[in-house]
From TrEMBL, chain A:
It comes from the Bacteria. The keyword Plastid does not apply. GO terms for molecular function: ATP binding. Keywords: ATP-binding, Nucleotide-binding, Transport. Pfam families: ABC_tran (PF00005). This is ABC transporter ATP-binding protein. Belongs to the ABC transporter superfamily. InterPro entries: AAA+_ATPase, ABC_transp_ATP-bind, ABC_transporter-like_ATP-bd, ABC_transporter-like_CS, P-loop_NTPase. Gene3D superfamilies: P-loop containing nucleotide triphosphate hydrolases. Residues 27-269 form the ABC transporter domain.
From TrEMBL, chain C:
This is ABC transporter permease. It comes from Dactylosporangium cerinum. It is found in: Cell membrane. Residues 1-21 have a biased composition (Low complexity). The chain crosses the membrane at residues 32-53, 123-147, 168-188, 194-212, 257-279, 299-321. Pfam families: BPD_transp_1, BPD_transp_1_N. Keywords: Cell membrane, Membrane, Transmembrane, Transmembrane helix, Transport. Its main location: membrane. SUPFAM superfamilies: MetI-like (SSF161098). Residues 121-322 form the ABC transmembrane type-1 domain. The keyword Cell membrane applies. InterPro entries: BPD_transp_1_N, MetI-like, MetI-like_sf.
TrEMBL record, chain D:
Residues 88-277 form the ABC transmembrane type-1 domain. This is ABC transporter permease. CDD domains: TM_PBP2. Keywords: Cell membrane, Membrane, Transmembrane, Transmembrane helix, Transport. It comes from Dactylosporangium cerinum. It comes from the Bacteria.
Automatic annotation (TrEMBL), chain E:
Belongs to the ABC transporter superfamily. It comes from Dactylosporangium cerinum. The lineage of its organism: Bacteria, Bacillati, Actinomycetota, Actinomycetes, Micromonosporales. Signal peptide: none annotated. This is ABC transporter ATP-binding protein. Residues 5-256 form the ABC transporter domain. Keywords: ATP-binding, Cell membrane, Membrane, Nucleotide-binding, Transport.
Length: 281, 480, 330, 291, 263
């Protein structure tokens, strides 16, 4: 797999502060604890409870679990976008708690996030083109590798989309623009937080396929967050099952889904709709 | 508490419902502003009474005053008079009031009494006052000093006294509803000849002139004071009795001769010639003010020997093409139509070729600036005499160390002093004429404009109210 | 901020059967304490501003002593009033006074400010209560009507009437009322206080602005509440008409309305200047105006302090009411 | 399907309907402004000078009036129509500048408080609460009583009394927008906080700010007229509708028209401005906007 | 199986500034007693519009152009006809998507149940209200009805809230229940429980259930019949097996193809 990474990665590693060991992890989370304090009541809520995980270069990893189990909190902490909590997070080997603010800003583009609500992820006052232009001014070297039109082609969007504003895009189109924006940054890690749950099933399949393809061609690692086991299974190699802030079970998808060890995983599998249909396949 | 205002009165015992322009501040005559005098003067009496022409007469608490030498005055106190609380209103009480007036920090009349060096009451009916320098009009000053009971005043203090004043007058305190009204009732054992023939008076107040008109129109009050010309006209049209009295309050434009542009006598003359006081009286006041060309003619009706009359053409000629800049300071909202008057003055100056800017400020600040000599150009404000003596204006406005000090001149200082040293008013009169001519006609430092006319309306059938030019009101003979 | 008149819909946090929380059980208490501390801080700042405003209102000595006074006399008075001391000393004296309930003495009335404020308070209270009652009685139905018929001509008419109330200069409206009802028609007294008839015009004038605010807020809040899914759900359960509007929607829409009512009351208590001026109403507003015209800075200061205190107390009241009405806040 | 798709994603038609209502509200305001600013240039207005021989003339449409002074004359014999027009100019100017001076600092503080939260928010919120706790009319009166009335002081008062409300609204609007995920996306792309605040949050608040500003114009005009009524407004020889109204107040029983027209003009103008502000606010309300 | 709900040729359109917009276009649908009919289709296909039309809760700008809705043989909705006021809460119950928002947050569960009962059961006693409230919650498989009755909605978990909402819809024993995406906001595990609850309710009470969802898989697990909607039309309907095994329409086929495979 490391081979694929090297080939697929445009531009090599020169842009990194230090050249990375190819077998090194893109993201390492060590014994992470994140707590939210409710502003109104002052109550403290532990959303992520002693979680550790590791994503190697080019890997695709999923986190599943029910609503409120801490998946988003984990992802935001891991990319340095949300509250960082206690415990060590290393993005490309840099510990997020020890890097300075400036360095963090440099490091962040390495991890790009695709969110659930595609419209909410785009500035409503910016056309697609000016949004891309802004990214280019923010990261001139990183983004010079591709033209706007080519970029849109890679996410299978028509160049005419460039002049549109977010509210003039359908959900699927908007989500593809979000993916294009992430792609432009040539990230080493793409975090997709329920990227398809706001979309219709027919569109969902396209988006998933696109994410897969990008991972294959650029070699970026993928951290997929979802509550839909079928989606996870069709996209990811490794899965972590979260429950009440803890990772209760991890392993390769095949193993976990075929022989679930934990009660909760079993419950999840049993609750998956479509048993009747699958039984007829 | 007082009686309910707003309820119509019919025959029988009659309480006068009087409407003032503002809530009287404190009713303590020593520190209180003179505007509240209308209320406290029903209960308290001045040491010396005045006649219709504002001259002291012997019908009041003091029955005689003699000048034993140039700086010593001896007064006789009317015997056997008591305050309504039983205290004796004797010479000691008079001496106490004079001392309070001179020594209290916040005394309103303090500055008039700086000349007093000694006050003594050798017996129950005699008071002897010594002044530093000779002062022929000292007795006049006592027409505005109101007698307070020494023990009661000392006991209660200023605030306590103001909450329930005690005096020798025809009425006694009846109570108040805070912020709403104040009442006095008749004093059955009043010593004087003019006992009240009504039951008492309830004072209320309304800041807005339109209100004061509306309230008299709706018969909510029996007398409504202080109606500006517009309201007075309306009231008359509506068939309401309006009484107009020419007052001693004078509106004057003061030109600062010590600073540009009016350090130039030519420009002062131009300004004096440009302003048309008759047009102001007619146009702005609808005739309800009295054009007045003199400065030291204190009593209503009195005219100066010499004066300046309008000549816009000459004014323009004097100014020439230089277009000097002039600031006009005036106390916003302090006197009736003062904004319009100031603008009329400004308009006239502009026509003559001046460039005018207006500085409306509140009264307190204006006084402070005037006193601090920070008013280049023109200051317009009123001279409000407490007593009808020319020295009030001479010392107040003409001497180098006066309030305005806008016309410093050794000759003026000398003449003012000389006038005071005369034996009586008649002897002083020619000197004041001379002063007036210097200030107004020769040097053009003062442009007197007009005297205010005070209007009040009385309800149907209400009569017997007497209003004096110095803001004194006699309610005792008021009936319905 | 709970006092925001802009309704901010807050989604209730999902309830957890057994959250892995190092929970803070006394959340409500903590929140109350934090809120109280914030209000106290605001109050302290407001008090400091009041102090500065007091100093701002200018040198009182000329107004008190008149133009004839000499510089020495003025200086003596300044000394007597304590104005010649260092500002910081004055400030701490003032704070001490405020916290011991002593708001100083008026320069013009020679009386304790507190007692004067208390004397005037009943009148202003009367006016505010009558005006507020009127505002609520007209504003709430008007707003509900507009919300129920959102987008129709009814709505537009009701909303425009309400907005008109927010657009008319209050004192001008008062003047016109006087001209019409007192001078020309002679139906009602033109001003002053005493009988209930005296209250009619001032209360009417007073009610215009809060009425407009209440109507507009009611409309906004009600239209939001009426769009909530639980309203449709209630309808689907067969619950009809008035009950849905008042019991379900209005109760939910009430909080912002209540907030604005309480806070407006606070503002009117100290800010009824124009109305009281027009009608010679012997309330706090008149007193304030007089104080300012006379440079009676201790009185100005005292009224401002009083207003700030009332406002803060009413803020707390809003919080308390909120926690009573809305179980989610408890 | 295609028509449904369009409806679901396209710019909603209701929004366009609201746009037209904005236009129809802005039109009369623009007309008033144009009239007030252009009429003096035409030279058609009666001369503005004083004429103490012709004071207090009734308007042309009343008995005894003449059409050479369409609205009559004042106590100085100046033409009221000319004054009315020129006062309108100052009134509109005061409204605009008064709104800007309140909106500027208010927006900035609200933006910072809403975006950065934490202690910045706490400090600013306490300031807002403190400002709101002070009875604004007394604050205004006290300041003017000391500083004297002049335009700069008036604007200071308008700024002081207006910023808190603006800050509060901006703060809560900012808090809504900062939760949108594009903010996280920008951060992930390495954008600095200030860039996010000023290049993204601020433009998104633009509509709200314009609407707030519009409403503030109305408020400023009302406050100015109230201050003028109490004798603390603009300085002569300048006139605003508020000061004309104040001048006419004691002539109300004899010459009602002096106070009536400016008061009426203020009401209508403020009503129009408020209607416009309301329309804009609904137009830009992030909660009401279709995404 | 007797027909309970009969929708025939229902066309509905919305009035917009730009003109009329057709939301439903000649929809035919039938639900029998003891039957669960699933309505599936992607976002915007008109599912909610159909559901709301049956209970007469269409928005102000939406009108019925043609066709009719009959309930137990009576026409309740037709152009210019709306008799749904009488059937709402009695003959028809409805469960909405977001349970946490379809309960009044300021009222205890007890009050909300009592309100519905008192409205629809004439002269019901206090004791009866209590008894039936407890009963219906028990029916919803809620283990401690007393506590739930005394709770405000925000004090309950999502699953409990949705069960209370269903309880509110069935407490007056309607013959037809309409559920619009009533499990979308729930976790998969909770969803399974709620869906199971519906199955037992239908079996026990013999009611008809119109189950609206965008999840074809979920519908296929639960329903007896399925109607597939697209662009305001029912493009295909029939028994679950028929639709899944032998999709007649392209559209249905595409839907099925888009589902991630589980192998
Ligand atoms: N900013 C916050 N303040 C307080 N609590 C929060 C905050 N963000 C999240 N939480 C709480 O933390 C818990 C975990 O939230 P998180 O968003 O990580 O869950 P999730 O697994 O992503 O859920 P979902 O599937 O619904 O997206 C939830 O209970 C949530 O209420
Ligand atoms: N009142 C209305 N005015 C205008 N258009 C409307 C109205 N109600 C619904 N629509 C439109 O009708 C179409 C169908 O809406 P509907 O809510 O029935 O779809 P749905 O199938 O329930 O979708 P979803 O799965 O997203 O809930 C949508 O495009 C919607 O925008
Ligand atoms: Mg999440
Ligand atoms: Mg729907």
């Amino acid at each position: 797999m490391t081979d694929v990474v090297q080939k697929g990665m445009p531009g090599g590693d020169a842009r990194h502060p230090r050249a990375l060991d190819q077998t090194a992890a893109v993201l390492e989370v060590d014994d992470l604890v994140v707590e939210h304090r409710n502003r109104r009541t002052g109550e403290v809520f532990r959303a992520v409870d002693h979680v550790s995980l590791r994503i190697g270069a080019g890997e695709s990893v999923a986190v599943v679990g029910e609503s409120g189990s801490g998946k988003t909190t984990l992802a935001m902490a891991a990319t340095g976008l949300g509250p960082r909590g206690d415990g060590d997070i290393r993005l490309l080997g840099h510990s997020l708690s020890s890097v300075g603010r400036k360095q963090l800003r440099k490091l962040r583009p390495e991890a790009q996030v695709v969110f659930q609500d595609p419209h909410g992820s785009l500035d409503p006052r910016q056309s697609v083109r000016s949004g891309l232009r802004e990214l280019r001014t923010l990261q001139p070297e990183r983004t010079s590798w591709i033209e706007d039109t080519d970029l849109l082609e890679r996410v299978r969007l028509d160049p005419s989309i460039l002049e549109r504003y977010p509210h003039q895009l359908s959900g699927g189109q908007a989500q593809r623009v979000c993916i294009a924006r992430a792609l432009l940054m040539r990230p080493r890690l793409i975090v997709a937080d329920e990227p398809t749950s706001g979309l219709d099933v027919s569109v969902q399949a396209d988006v998933l396929a696109l994410l897969q393809e990008i991972r294959a061609t650029t070699g970026a690692a993928l951290l997929m967050i979802s509550h839909d086991l079928a989606v996870v299974r069709s996209v990811c190699d490794v899965v972590h099952v979260m429950h009440h802030g803890r990772v209760v079970e991890s392993g390769p998808c095949e193993t976990v889904f075929a022989r679930p060890e934990h009660d909760y995983t079993r419950e999840l599998l049993a609750a998956m709709p479509g048993a009747r249909w699958r039984s007829r396949q | 508490g007082g009686s309910e205002p707003g309820t119509a009165q019919s025959a029988g015992p009659f309480t006068v419902r009087a409407l003032l322009a503002a809530q009287p501040a404190t009713l303590d005559p020593i520190v209180g502003a003179r505007s509240a005098q209308i209320v406290w003067a029903t209960m308290l009496e001045p040491l010396i009474n005045t006649d219709a022409s504002l001259k002291p007469i012997d019908t009041g608490l003091l029955t005689s005053w003699t000048r034993t030498d140039a700086t010593t005055w001896t007064f006789k106190v009317r015997p056997d008079i008591s305050f309504s609380n039983g205290e004796k209103a004797d010479a000691a009480a008079v001496a106490n009031t004079l001392t309070l007036t001179r020594d209290t920090a916040a005394s309103q009349l303090k500055s008039y009494f700086t000349n007093v060096v000694d006050i003594a009451a050798p017996d129950a009916t005699t008071v002897v006052v010594k002044t530093k320098t000779s002062q022929y009009n000292f007795a006049d000053l006592l027409t505005t000093v109101y007698l307070v009971p020494p023990k009661y005043y000392a006991e209660k203090g200023s605030a306590g006294f103001a909450a329930a004043p005690v005096g020798t007058g025809p009425y006694v305190w009846a109570g108040s509803n805070a912020g709403r009204d104040m009442s006095v009732k008749k004093n059955p054992s009043y010593w004087g000849p003019k006992k009240a023939i009504n039951e008492g008076i309830t004072f209320t107040w309304a800041n807005e002139a339109a209100q004061r008109l509306a309230l008299i129109q709706s018969k909510s009050v029996d007398v409504s004071f202080d109606l500006p010309p517009a309201q007075a006209t309306t009231a008359k049209k509506a068939g309401i009795t309006v009484t107009s009295t020419e007052t001693a309050i004078k509106i004057i434009a003061f030109l600062d001769s010590t600073k540009a542009p009016f350090d130039d006598p030519k420009l002062r003359e131009a300004a004096a010639l440009a302003i048309d006081r008759d047009a102001i009286v007619k146009g702005i006041f609808d005739g309800q003010a009295v054009a007045d060309a003199g400065l030291l003619n204190v009593s209503p009706g009195q005219k100066p020997a010499q004066s300046v009359s309008t000549d816009p053409a000459k004014a323009k000629e004097l100014v020439g093409a230089a277009a000097p800049a002039v600031q006009i300071h005036y106390p916003a909202a302090q006197y009736t139509n003062i904004e319009e008057v100031s603008q009329a003055v400004g308009g006239a100056l502009e026509k003559a070729g001046f460039k005018v800017t207006y500085v409306p400020i509140d009264y307190g600040t204006l006084v402070k600036r005037v006193v601090g000599r920070q008013v280049p150009g023109i200051a317009i404000f009123a001279g409000v005499p407490n007593v009808a003596v020319p020295d009030f204006f001479a010392s107040g406005f003409m001497k180098a160390k006066s309030i305005t000090g806008n016309c410093p001149d050794a000759q003026i200082d000398e003449l003012s002093q000389k006038a005071l040293e005369q034996t009586d008013a008649a002897a002083a009169a020619p000197i004041y004429e001379q002063l007036n001519t210097i200030g107004v006609v020769d040097k053009h430092c003062y442009v007197p404009l007009y005297r205010q006319v005070f209007n009040y309306a009385t309800g149907p059938g209400v009569k017997g109210l007497v209003f004096g030019p110095l803001n004194t009101v006699d309610f005792t003979q008021t009936t319905h | 901020m709970t006092t925001s008149p802009v309704p901010v819909s807050e989604k209730s946090p999902p309830a957890k059967s057994a959250p892995p929380a190092r929970g803070n059980r006394s959340g409500a208490l903590r929140r109350a304490a934090a809120r109280f501390a914030a209000l106290l801080a605001s109050l302290l700042i407001a008090l400091s501003m009041a102090f500065m405003l007091g100093r701002l209102s200018g040198d009182p000595t000329t107004t008190i002593l008149g133009p004839m006074a000499t510089a020495e006399q003025r200086e003596a008075l300044r000394h007597e009033l304590g104005l010649d001391r260092p500002l910081l000393v004055q400030y701490f004296d003032y704070l001490k006074g405020v916290f011991t309930g002593d708001l100083g003495n008026s320069l013009q009335f020679y009386q304790p400010n507190t007692s004067m404020i208390m004397d005037r308070l009943p009148f202003t209270l009367q006016l505010v209560a009558a005006g507020m009652a009127l505002a609520i009685l007209v504003g709430v139905p008007l707003g509900v009507l507009a919300a129920r018929r959102e987008g129709t001509w009814w709505d537009r008419a009701a909303s425009t009437v309400a907005l008109l109330g927010q657009s008319v200069p209050v004192f001008w409206f008062g003047m016109m009322l006087v001209v019409l009802f007192a001078v020309n028609l002679g139906w009602l007294p033109a001003g002053q206080s005493g009988t209930p008839a005296h209250l009619v015009l001032p209360a009417l004038t007073m009610s215009v602005y809060p009425m407009a605010q209440i109507a507009r807020l009611t409309r906004a809040s009600m239209s939001e509440a009426l769009a909530e899914p639980y309203i449709d759900a209630a309808k689907a359960r067969g619950i009809t008409g008035r009950r849905v509007v008042w019991r379900h929607a209005f109760k939910n829409a009430m909080m912002p309305i209540l907030t604005i009512v309480v806070l407006q009351t606070g503002i009117l208590l100290s800010g009824a200047v124009a109305v009281e001026y027009v009608y010679s109403w012997p309330g706090l507003g008149q007193l304030a105006l007089q104080a300012i015209q006379f440079r009676d800075f201790p009185l100005v200061q005292a009224i401002v302090v009083f207003g700030a205190l009332v406002f803060v107390l009413l803020n707390l009241l809003v919080d308390v009411i909120h926690s009573i009405v809305d179980p989610r806040v408890r | 399907m295609s028509q449904l798709e369009l409806e679901r994603t396209g710019a909603g038609t209701p929004r366009r309907a609201r746009r037209t209502s904005v236009f129809w509200l802005a039109l009369p305001i623009a007309l008033v402004a144009v009239a007030v600013f252009l009429l003096p240039l035409t030279g058609l207005l009666p001369a503005a000078g004083q004429d103490l021989d012709a004071t207090r003339q009734p308007p042309g449409f009343l008995a005894g009036g003449s059409w050479s002074h369409p609205l009559g004359t004042d106590k100085l014999g100046q033409d009221l129509f000319t004054q009315f027009i020129e006062a309108g100019r100052l009134t509109i100017m005061i409204g605009l500048v008064g709104a800007i001076v309140a909106i500027g600092p208010g927006t900035l503080l609200g933006l910072l408080a809403g975006y950065f939260r934490g202690w910045v928010d706490r400090v600013i919120s306490v300031l807002i609460d403190a400002q709101l706790a002070l009875p604004f009319i007394l604050v205004a009166l006290a300041i003017i009583a000391n500083r004297g009335s002049s335009l700069p002081v008036l604007f200071l008062v308008l700024a002081l009394t207006g910023w808190a409300v603006c800050a509060r609204v901006t703060r809560s609007a900012t808090m809504v927008i900062r939760e949108r995920q594009f903010v996280l996306g920008l951060r992930a792309a390495g954008a600095s906080e200030l860039r996010i605040v000023f290049r993204h949050i601020l433009p998104n608040l633009g509509g709200t700010i314009v609407a707030l500003g519009t409403l503030q114009v109305g408020t400023a005009i009302l406050i100015e007229s109230a201050l003028s009524f109490l004798g603390l407004g603009v300085v002569p020889p300048m006139n605003s509708w508020g000061s004309l109204l104040a001048a006419g107040q004691d002539e109300l029983s004899t010459a009602w028209w002096i106070a009536f027209f400016p008061g009426f003009a203020v009401t209508v103008l403020v009503l129009l401005v408020n209607l416009l502000g309301d329309a804009l606010l609904t137009n830009y309300d992030p909660r009401k906007r279709r995404r | 199986m007797t027909s309970l709900l009969h929708v025939s040729g229902l066309s509905i359109s919305a009035r917009l500034a730009a003109g009329q917009l057709r939301l439903l276009d000649g929809v035919d649908l039938e639900v029998g007693r003891g039957q669960i009919v699933g309505v599936v289709g992607e976002s915007g296909s008109g599912k909610t519009t159909l559901a709301r039309a049956v209970v007469g809760l269409l928005e102000r700008n939406v009108t019925v152009e043609s066709g009719a809705v009959e309930l137990a043989g009576d026409v309740v909705v037709a152009p210019g006809v709306d008799r749904t006021g009488r059937i709402r809460g009695t003959a028809v119950g409805m469960v909405f998507q977001d349970a946490s928002r379809s309960l009044n947050p300021l009222m205890k569960v007890r009050t909300q149940l009592g309100e519905v009962l008192r409205r629809h059961v004439r002269g019901i006693t206090k004791a009866d209200v209590e008894r039936r409230s407890v009963e219906v919650l028990a029916q919803m498989r809620i283990s401690d009805p007393a506590r739930v009755l005394d709770s405000y909605p925000h004090q309950l978990s999502g699953g409990l809230r949705q069960r209370v909402a269903i309880g509110l819809a069935v407490v007056t024993r309607p013959s037809l229940v309409i559920a619009d995406e009533c499990t979308t906001a729930l976790d998969v595990t909770t969803q399974t429980k709620v869906v199971g609850l519906f199955r037992t309710l239908v079996d026990e009470l013999g009611i008809g259930l119109l189950f609206v969802t965008h999840d074809l898989m979920l519908a296929s697990d639960l329903c007896d019949r399925i109607a597939v909607m697209s662009g305001g039309r029912v493009v295909e309907q029939g028994g679950v097996e028929d639709v899944l095994d032998r999709p007649q329409q392209d559209y249905t086929r595409r839907l099925l193809a888009a589902i991630p495979s589980w192998t």
